[in-house]
Design goal:
The chain has 227 residues and is an alpha+beta fold. The protein has helices at residues 17-26, 165-226; strands spanning 2-4, 7-9, 42-44, 49-51, 64-74, 81-87, 90-93, 102-104, 117-119, 128-140, 143-158. Helix content is 32%, strand content 30%.
């Protein structure tokens, strides 16, 4: 989970829809700084997907009123279609294709920094370019300053989730480290066993030598007494 000033957003690739409901209920009031994290770009057909879009203010102490709009351009087409508009407290799906399938997971308030939305039941027709637009009015002392920020997400839809190279490499490294650790433990155990065994042999040798000396001393005393 990514916590930023005034919001929580979840970045996942595969999540069952009930979890999105929980996320939407919990997506609120977090403490900390804002971090602009790129959205994931690969969705699985028939599952839910989170379209991430974060635009941080340069100065947190400056209040602002922000609206967020999402536009979509399907693969092979040139024009964008307006599909979603958020203006606190309303979150409106404005395109019939996405009606009932888009949910707001971003900042709940006027000062929006996270424009994240969730797409339910992703289909191959949802592949394409998504444009997220922040229209932000900064409430400065004595005047207002308007800022517009646009971000795009190129979404592809696949039959099954592809494991990222980083995840595969991390898993391989983990297994290699486990094997190396086990080998190291075996070496340590063998070394400790050998050291303990050598100590025991040395101790027994010293005892045998001491006993032999005592025996020689006793024989010497007996010989003296016999004379």
């Amino acid at each position: 989970m990514i916590c930023t000033s005034g919001f929580c957003s979840m970045a996942v690739t595969q999540v069952q829809w009930p979890l999105f409901i929980v996320v939407s209920l919990l997506a609120c009031e977090c403490l900390g700084g804002c971090a602009e994290v790129e959205s994931l770009t690969e969705a699985v057909q028939g599952e839910a997907f989170v379209l991430g879009c974060i635009s941080c203010k340069k100065r947190e102490e400056v209040s602002a009123v922000t609206t967020v709009d999402w536009h979509f351009r399907p693969q092979g087409q040139e024009n964008f279609t307006h599909i979603f508009h958020y203006e606190h407290p309303s979150a409106d799906v404005v395109d019939e294709t996405f009606r009932g399938r888009l949910d707001w997971l971003g900042t709940r308030g006027e000062d929006v920094q996270a424009g994240t939305v969730a797409v339910r039941n992703v289909s191959y027709g949802d592949a394409g370019t998504y444009r997220c637009t922040f229209s932000r009015t900064l409430l400065l002392a004595g005047f207002r300053h308007h800022v517009s920020v646009e971000k795009e997400v190129e979404l592809s839809v696949v039959d099954a989730a592809n494991r990222e190279l980083a995840a595969v490499v991390s898993e391989m490294v983990m297994y290699v480290l486990i094997v190396l650790l086990q080998l190291w433990l075996i070496v340590v155990l063998v070394y400790c066993y050998k050291k303990v065994s050598d100590d025991i042999d040395a101790r027994e040798a010293r005892r045998a030598l001491k006993a032999h000396k005592e025996l020689l001393d006793c024989d010497g005393v007996k010989l003296d007494e016999a004379k």
